[in-house]
């Protein structure tokens, strides 16, 4: 029986709807396992800009630092996407949070629930058994280097940067995770062209001998984008830089049937942050159709990684599995065989998960 | 009846084997349509380094400039990939060629031959009818900016850069192509984070009103990596930066069944260069199993784009189609239903194509 303080940060768009469901699951777990979870809430992204002018108010950051874990939603708003000259943007809040909390490792497990084999655009026989754990570096690369304009604004530039130290700390996390799994690590880079990738490869090669039980391969990012679809089962743990990780994990969501199923954990020096990999999805916001399972599975990661509560985490995953086995689906994971009355909205499928807890 | 001079640049690995077949197809076309094609050959990549110390000898560049078109193979060698500190690399030859010849637009048509519906890892019902034309920018971005080390080699950096001019010239090519197709253009960037992407989006927005008949959408690169697999038919023409194009087109090769089917055209200020999108593939080099169809289809693009020979180009594509209809496959595009005696090697499937010409 533990006492923990959880900060709920729903952010923008469907972040609000799905995080509310994720929180209910945490409440139910606390009740069932006799823990005391306390909650607070804070603003980030577009909603924070509207309220305070700042995409990551100091108060939010302060609350994050003081909590034992953060359940996060999403940030973003089409208004800024279509205005390339906007100076203040929702995403700045997300990036600043990652940097300030030292969240250098973003874990994205890609695993298909058997019941969703039909929901993917990839053939079931290619998918069956695929189980990949991505480690995406989250506080370096072109995301955080200097950027700007030259020549009266006619030329734009972005600087990508990595230090040995930054590569090594995420690489070690990935090697250690590989040890507890199928002992294979694929490091993804573009070392045939990019200097940061050459440093990346050097560091991996240098520390690999310390993990003689882990089989290491290096792949170029373009080849990896192809192999993920062609033969997803060849991957166990994948470690890569921030930008490549952003692209490859979104792509890999198709292995799990839908982006709406994928949870992620951002960990590092302090409080861990848990969030769906899907974004704010303003096209479906407020319609009550968003898939909350990624937020629920993010709560499961939170219980496991930040609180060390394995049984509680497994109870959540198993409840999701049972809901799928019972035939319930949100729209995004329904296939042609799903009867209409089994297609539920955000809250309704959340209630089904609660029943199995 | 035209007279044209074609430079054959096989490069490394399977580049040698497949380009030889591509050349035979050009010879056959010249004979059948009464053209006079003359040929020369030149070195690039690892083979050029071995012979001259230089991945793009001046002599090769000179010959390229003087020819009417270049049929290209591939460059690369594992020896350099595993040595991140190598100073001279095969890829430098490729990049220098692109820069020196002003090949700023790389066209990668992604279209599935109906006979290969079964060969893809994606479900046939998702694929059927997919037809995408990528415009990948080829002489800017992080590929060509300054790169190096700082802090005694402990920090690596790469600079990505784009000017308005560079974005506009490729964007116009893409808009014009969209006009001749389904009139949809998807511009891919990461404008929520990257400054070069913001400039990119600005330029697209600025010139879009000049093409009122083309429907434009902007997508983030991560979302695009997902959508390409989830719903490939939603795309018509896609335009994007060098690095994003590299990743997305390799991924999209799965839409065409195999990378072994995809041709590309690099065009710009001078001589056009035509090449398969697959690489040197040293794991299968010399085994006689490489798929030469991408090189043959590159020859078809060459005839169409550089020589304006539409009928000749279509004759080549139709010959490939007939070979597939006759049931012949290389290993990479065979499916479980393909009988063993229909699986041919590089030369043998090339001979089948020649029979239909
Ligand atoms: C919203 C955006 C800045 C973000 C990123 O690129 O990191 C998102 O795509 C993600 O993957 O968390
Ligand atoms: C070999 C490599 C440098 C090249 C690239 O990244 O451009 C290749 O992947 C390609 O797509 O032509």
From TrEMBL, chains A, B:
<feature type="binding site">
    <location>
        <position position="98"/>
    </location>
    <ligand>
        <name>substrate</name>
    </ligand>
</feature>
<comment type="function">
    <text>Catalyzes the oxidation of 3-carboxy-2-hydroxy-4-methylpentanoate (3-isopropylmalate) to 3-carboxy-4-methyl-2-oxopentanoate. The product decarboxylates to 4-methyl-2 oxopentanoate.</text>
</comment>
<keyword id="KW-0028">Amino-acid biosynthesis</keyword>
<feature type="site" description="Important for catalysis">
    <location>
        <position position="190"/>
    </location>
</feature>
<dbReference type="GO" id="GO:0005829">
    <property type="term" value="C:cytosol"/>
</dbReference>
<feature type="binding site">
    <location>
        <position position="108"/>
    </location>
    <ligand>
        <name>substrate</name>
    </ligand>
</feature>
<dbReference type="InterPro" id="IPR004429">
    <property type="entry name" value="Isopropylmalate_DH"/>
</dbReference>
<feature type="site" description="Important for catalysis">
    <location>
        <position position="143"/>
    </location>
</feature>
<dbReference type="GO" id="GO:0003862">
    <property type="term" value="F:3-isopropylmalate dehydrogenase activity"/>
</dbReference>
<keyword id="KW-0560">Oxidoreductase</keyword>
<comment type="similarity">
    <text>Belongs to the isocitrate and isopropylmalate dehydrogenases family. LeuB type 1 subfamily.</text>
</comment>
<feature type="binding site">
    <location>
        <position position="136"/>
    </location>
    <ligand>
        <name>substrate</name>
    </ligand>
</feature>
<dbReference type="GO" id="GO:0009098">
    <property type="term" value="P:L-leucine biosynthetic process"/>
</dbReference>
<comment type="subunit">
    <text>Homodimer.</text>
</comment>
<feature type="binding site">
    <location>
        <position position="222"/>
    </location>
    <ligand>
        <name>substrate</name>
    </ligand>
</feature>
<keyword id="KW-0100">Branched-chain amino acid biosynthesis</keyword>
<keyword id="KW-0460">Magnesium</keyword>
<feature type="binding site">
    <location>
        <position position="250"/>
    </location>
    <ligand>
        <name>Mg(2+)</name>
    </ligand>
</feature>
<dbReference type="Pfam" id="PF00180">
    <property type="entry name" value="Iso_dh"/>
</dbReference>
<keyword id="KW-0432">Leucine biosynthesis</keyword>
<dbReference type="InterPro" id="IPR019818">
    <property type="entry name" value="IsoCit/isopropylmalate_DH_CS"/>
</dbReference>
<comment type="pathway">
    <text>Amino-acid biosynthesis; L-leucine biosynthesis; L-leucine from 3-methyl-2-oxobutanoate: step 3/4.</text>
</comment>
<keyword id="KW-0963">Cytoplasm</keyword>
<feature type="binding site">
    <location>
        <position position="222"/>
    </location>
    <ligand>
        <name>Mg(2+)</name>
    </ligand>
</feature>
<keyword id="KW-0479">Metal-binding</keyword>
<feature type="binding site">
    <location>
        <position position="246"/>
    </location>
    <ligand>
        <name>Mg(2+)</name>
    </ligand>
</feature>
<feature type="domain" description="Isopropylmalate dehydrogenase-like">
    <location>
        <begin position="5"/>
        <end position="353"/>
    </location>
</feature>
<dbReference type="InterPro" id="IPR024084">
    <property type="entry name" value="IsoPropMal-DH-like_dom"/>
</dbReference>
<dbReference type="GO" id="GO:0051287">
    <property type="term" value="F:NAD binding"/>
</dbReference>
<dbReference type="GO" id="GO:0000287">
    <property type="term" value="F:magnesium ion binding"/>
</dbReference>
<keyword id="KW-0464">Manganese</keyword>
<keyword id="KW-0520">NAD</keyword>
<protein>
    <recommendedName>
        <fullName>3-isopropylmalate dehydrogenase</fullName>
        <ecNumber>1.1.1.85</ecNumber>
    </recommendedName>
</protein>
């Amino acid at each position: 029986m533990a006492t923990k303080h959880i900060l709920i940060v729903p952010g923008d768009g469907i972040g609000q709807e799905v995080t509310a469901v994720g929180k209910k699951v945490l409440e139910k777990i606390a009740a069932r396992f006799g823990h005391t979870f306390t909650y607070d809430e804070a603003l980030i992204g577009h909603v924070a800009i509207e309220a305070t002018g700042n995409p990551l108010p100091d108060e939010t950051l302060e609350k994050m630092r003081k909590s034992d874990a953060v359940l996060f939603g999403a940030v973003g708003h089409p208004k800024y996407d279509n205005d390339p000259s906007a100076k203040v943007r929702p995403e700045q809040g997300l990036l600043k949070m990652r940097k300030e909390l030292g969240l250098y490792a973003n874990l994205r497990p890609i695993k298909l629930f058997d019941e969703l084999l039909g929901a993917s655009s990839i053939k079931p026989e290619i998918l069956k058994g695929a189980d990949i754990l991505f480690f995406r570096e989250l506080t370096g690369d072109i995301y955080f280097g200097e950027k700007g304009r030259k020549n009266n604004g006619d030329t734009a530039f972005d600087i990508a940067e990595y230090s040995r130290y930054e590569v090594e700390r995420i690489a070690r996390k990935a090697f250690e995770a590989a040890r507890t799994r199928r002992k294979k690590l694929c490091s993804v880079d573009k070392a045939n062209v990019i200097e940061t990738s050459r440093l990346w490869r050097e560091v991996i090669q240098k520390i690999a001998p310390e993990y003689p039980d882990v089989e290491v391969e290096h792949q170029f990012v373009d080849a990896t984008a192809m192999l993920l679809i062609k033969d997803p089962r060849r991957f166990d743990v994948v470690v890569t830089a921030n930008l490549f990780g952003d692209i490859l994990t979104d792509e890999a969501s198709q292995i799990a049937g839908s982006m709406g199923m994928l949870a992620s954990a951002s960990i590092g020096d302090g409080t861990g942050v848990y969030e769906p990999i899907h974004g704010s999805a303003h096209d479906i916001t407020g319609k009550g159709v968003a898939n909350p399972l990624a937020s629920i599975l993010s709560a499961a990661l939170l219980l496991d990684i930040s609180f060390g509560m394995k049984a509680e985490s497994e109870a959540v995953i198993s409840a999701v599995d049972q809901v799928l086995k019972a035939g319930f689906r949100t729209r995004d994971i329904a296939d042609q065989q799903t009867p209409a009355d089994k297609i539920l909205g955000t809250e309704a499928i959340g209630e089904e998960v609660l029943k199995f807890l």
